[in-house]
Amino acid sequence: MSRFFSSGGNSQNGKGDKSDLVRPLVSLSNSTTNYRVNKQTVSIDPSNAQISLRHISKVFPGRKGWLNKLTGQASSDFVAIEDMSLDIEHNTFVSIIGPSGCGKSTLLNIIAGLSSATSGEVLIDGQIVDKPGSDRGMVFQNYALMPWMTVQGNIKFAVETVFPKMSEIQQKRIVKENIQLVGLTGAEKKRPHELSGGMRQRVGIARALAINPQILLMDEPFGALDALTRGFLQDEIERIWEQQRKTAIMITHSIEEALLLSDRIVMMTKGPAARIDEVLDVPFPRPRDRTAVEEHPDYLKLKKEMEDHLYRETRAVEEERIR
Amino acid sequence: MTAISKRAIKSKKESRLLDNENVQAILLFLLSLAIFLGFWEIGANLKWFSKGMPTASLTIKELWYWVTHPFYDNGPNDLGIGWNLLISLRRVAIGYTLASVIAVPLGILVGISRVAFKAFNPYFQLLKPVSPLAWLPLGLYIFRNSELTGIFIITIASIWPTLTNTAFGVANVDSSYLDVSKTLGASRWRTIFKVIIPAALPNIISGLRISMGISWLVIVAAEMLLGTGLGYFIWNEWNNLYIPNILVAIFIIGVVGIVLDQIFAYLEKIVSFGKS
Asked: Which neighbouring-strand residues pair with A215?
């Protein structure tokens, strides 16, 4: 019940009617880190967690003050994420899925340290993190490759930045290995504009992995790719993940993608004041391949559950927009 | 049968040559040039224009003379056009380099800080539209030297486009590049030199291109009052009332302007990396 009140307290600035819509959904959810596995609830021991999110909230402050009121530009605070807690164990692949505008990317940026939480904290191996660091490698949706650098140059930039004291020979070796890992050997000297979208994202992945991070963060990594390339790269990610088994957090819109790659799927409610609705455990054995996953007896049940959740949340978003 | 198809192919080839956009453009260009020169020649001979207007043929003859005898020196009032051109280019080179050396770093500094951008932008906006020649008396008063004044005017005129374009480019660097730099934990300096400056380079080069255009515009006007240089050449011929040489100088100024602009167009292409 206390959560119920805190949500009311945050939305006092004029637009409280919007978050009223969220309340019934919010009260359904458990904000403590309970994983519902096939309708059973299990808790992760937080002391085993590599990444712990503790009561994370993110509020984007609105325009206030008499000047903005005078010009009619005043707006109330926007609560993007409200009181979100989550524990992620070592070597786990976690997908975060939710309707558009639910603050998924905001959450990932907070974990990456690119944006700071309004309240709450992010712990990695028990240490509070509030700024970016090379323990976290990031893959961006728009690839974010420097167009003036070659494939090799983009990856080398990352390696040089993170390991400035490493010898030139060793840096080059790391670059070469990672280009090989993502299957881009032969394209080292090409510039991003000469590559297809899929190839560009391979460079993005190689750059993130080249700094040998403990955690891989991916913000809709395949969002801008066509369906075929997407499937192809998903298989590549699965292959690479099996080799390295780094903890990974991936934002996605795709149910199939989440089911193919993840150990756990975090489903978020719609924003504003988004929170975790449910965490699904994905029991498929590894290494995985698409066909085996789709034939698994639990596949359809999990898919149905996710679809129900996403449709419900998306419908609520649409209805709100109409009003 | 074969004869017909051969003819068909031949006529198709001919029509293809005429269909080519570049061929059409060149033909249209040559046609318009011929009409222009013809009108000029006939008009000048029939005294349609003002008294003493030279004919096209005389002007072209003079152009040929100046182009084939660019470097001679019979004192400051009878100097080959090549020397005058070099004098103008030297002034532009010094003034423009000085402007760029000031404008690019200052633009980067202003672009990086939002506060600095907002604080200093009024100066740039105020000074940008001021005609460079308005600075001429001030320059003469301060330096009491026509050479330095010329360079001063080039500098002050060509500083603004580079400065504002650089600041704009730096302030609008794609935030995802900066995010990459941040997630890697790159230092401030490394981010500036390895990410921000290369990302803003297309804007910086277009600023430099506009500045170069302005320098070349301004030098001719400034030199009319300064002695020596292409601008003075025109002024001198005006005092001699010999119009063909004025037209020759205008043509040469135009050609040099094209060359300077194309150098920067080429640089812009290099730093665009497939963007446009």
From this structure: A136, A247
CB atoms within 10 A of CB B1: 5
Identify any residues that bridge with A116 across adjacent strands, giving them in sequence order.
Answer: none
A144 vs B contacts (CB less than 8 Å): 174, 176-177, 179-180
Counting beta carbons within 10 angstroms of the beta carbon of residue A308, is it exposed (0 to 12), middle (13 to 18) or buried (19 or more)? exposed
Best mean pLDDT range from A45-54, A302-311, B201-210? B201-210
DSSP 8-state assignment for residue B175:
H
Mean pLDDT within A248-270: 91
Q: How far apart are CA B163 and CA A24, in angstroms?
A: 55
Contacts with A279 (C-beta within 8 Å, 6 or more apart), sequence order: A33, A34, A35, A36, A86, A264, A265, A266, A267
| Per-residue pLDDT tens digits for A60-93 | 888 777 777 777 777 778 888 888 889 999 999 9
Mutate to test the interface with B, among A115, A116, A157 (most CBs of B within 10 A): A157
Specify which residues A217 forms β-bridges with. Answer: A138, A249
Is domain B66-270 given the CATH code 1.10.3720.10 in the classification?
A: yes
Give A136's contacts in chain B (Cβ within 8 Å).
183
Compute the count of residue pairs across chains A and B with CB atoms less than 8 Å apart: 60
**Domain locations in chain B?**
3-53, 66-270
For the whole model, what pTM was predicted? 0.79
pLDDT band, residue B178 (cuts 50/70/90): very high
Beta-bridge mates of residue A238: none
* Interior/surface letters A203-240, b for 16+ CB within 10 angstroms, e for the rest: bbbbbbbbbebbbbbbbbbbbbbeeebbbebbebbbeb
ipTM over 0.85: no
From CA A155, how far away is CA A211, in angstroms rounded? Answer: 9
Contacts of A195 (CB under 8 A, 6+ apart): A151, A187, A203
